[in-house]
Design brief:
Blueprint lengths: L5 H16 L3 H11 L3 E6 L5 E2 H12 L3 E11 L2 E10 L5 E10 L4 E8 L3
Parallel strand pairs: 1-6
Antiparallel strand pairs: 1-2, 3-4, 4-5, 5-6
Helix pairs in contact: 1-2
Length: 119
Amino acid sequence: MSSITREAIEAFLHGQVAAWNDNDKDSFLAHYRAAAPGGLTIEYVGHPPSDGWLVLERMWQQQNAKIEIEEVAVIINGNEVACHNRNKVKGSALAIDTIELYRFDDDGCVTVRYFIRQP
């Protein structure tokens, strides 16, 4: 179990999505730094886990101009979270659904797993 509060988790989840949609990279990364002071690991399910900071940089460079995120559902249970997000491709009717699993550990590490429904 993590010492992070439910309120801090909610602030992170909603804040990073709002920053993404506002094209505010500094705020986006600040939300992750605040939530994961001990480290960040991100896994696209089906691929090996990676350094989360590198993944976020790549994701921002390749996707931010193209994608707007709609939060569909957030379920928080203790230090673990499941999110259903709809990643809407700007200028089209295409949307890519993701299930995102987050775990906040006592050592300040955050692990994220992305399940991506291919269009």
